[in-house]
Amino acid sequence: MAETFIGVIGGSGVYGIDGLEGAEWRAVATPWGDPSDQILVGRLGGVPIAFLPRHGRGHVHTPTTVPYRANIDALKRLGVTDVIAVSACGSFREEMAPGDFVLVDQFIDRTIHREKSFFGPGCVAHVSLAHPTCARLADAVAEAAAAEGIRIHRGGTYLAMEGPLFSTQAESKLYREVWGCDVIGMTNMPEAALAREAELCYCPVAMVTDYDSWHPDHGAVDITAIVATLTGNADNARALIRRLPGLLGGDRAPCPHGCDRALDHAVLTAPERRDPALVARLDAVAGRVLA
Ligand SMILES: CSC[C@H]1O[C@H](OP(=O)(O)O)[C@H](O)[C@@H]1O
Ligand SMILES: Nc1ncnc2[nH]cnc12
């Protein structure tokens, strides 16, 4: 049986986690450039953990400039098997209130300036994204949240916008009333898609900070209020993460939903027509099926 290795991507307001045994920040080089920052690697309850701040310590990357491919490659290269992606988000639902967590399970991707795949000319692959998140990981996060007394909603559709500006009121109403989205953020796509290509189980934990701009009683998004809510949310996120090693266990059975076998049958390019340079870049992400 394989070893569980938990990767945590920390979003806005979550730039570190404490309590890791033997923790050290490690620079990880990837063929896709540098990740957002060094990666904090250690153990929690005996289970290896790697923590990567999505925007870098000190929050230097915009949602557009986050090096999503390098981040996912670096986690995979370290041996991570399961990724918890913590993010701030706006809510389109009255009952998903600031302070609540949402276990997002679907996305609508409206981002336009990002590299969305590891594959390309010379190594073409088509991976299913019908169910873009891992239900097994979501079960564990839901249990951890219940144990911590965190209000968590199971399931929700996340509208990924390019940013960095927040939505207009007309966009907010479109996403909520016409498209049926539940929350909005700027970072979970293409991150989730790349994690699937890299055969990582991926579970987004969206922390509600505001009601975006549709709500008649809440007006426009206010970054000061968001940061205040984030501070409380970040402590809850860290408490939740500390429970995960105990819930996931050190021994890892194959994912019952097949996240860790997503590349089976996905690569269409004939072996003799593959671009050796691209195949070399794909060593960590797709070495299992290309080697
Ligand atoms: C702080 S409000 C806007 C900012 O916060 C979210 O980032 P992340 O998903 O990394 O927590 C949102 O997507 C925006 O990038
Ligand atoms: N309303 C909002 N829109 C986009 N990203 C967000 N992150 C937190 N709140 C958000």
TrEMBL record:
Pathway(s) where this gene product acts: Amino-acid biosynthesis; L-methionine biosynthesis via salvage pathway; S-methyl-5-thio-alpha-D-ribose 1-phosphate from S-methyl-5'-thioadenosine (phosphorylase route): step 1/1
GO cellular component terms given for this protein: cytosol
Residues at which substrate binds: 186, 210-212
InterPro entries given in the database record: MTAP, Nucleoside_phosphorylase_d, Nucleoside_phosphorylase_sf
Enzymatic reactions: S-methyl-5'-thioadenosine + phosphate = 5-(methylsulfanyl)-alpha-D-ribose 1-phosphate + adenine
EC number: 2.4.2.28
Annotated SUPFAM superfamilies: Purine and uridine phosphorylases
Sequence intervals crossing the membrane: none
Annotated ranges, domain Nucleoside phosphorylase: 6-243
Binding locations of phosphate: 12, 54-55, 87-88, 187
EC category name: transferase
UniProt entry keywords in alphabetical sequence: Glycosyltransferase, Purine salvage, Transferase
Statement: the UniProt record of this protein carries the keyword Electron transport: no
Sites annotated Important for substrate specificity: 167, 223
UniProt key word Ligase: no
GO molecular function: S-methyl-5-thioadenosine phosphorylase activity
Biological processes per GO annotation: L-methionine salvage from methylthioadenosine; purine ribonucleoside salvage
Gene3D superfamilies referenced in this protein's UniProt entry, alphabetically: Nucleoside phosphorylase domain (3.40.50.1580)
Function, as annotated: Catalyzes the reversible phosphorylation of S-methyl-5'-thioadenosine (MTA) to adenine and 5-methylthioribose-1-phosphate. Involved in the breakdown of MTA, a major by-product of polyamine biosynthesis. Responsible for the first step in the methionine salvage pathway after MTA has been generated from S-adenosylmethionine. Has broad substrate specificity with 6-aminopurine nucleosides as preferred substrates.
Similarity annotation: Belongs to the PNP/MTAP phosphorylase family. MTAP subfamily.
Subunit description: Homohexamer. Dimer of a homotrimer.
Record-given protein name: S-methyl-5'-thioadenosine phosphorylase
Gene from which this protein is expressed: mtnP
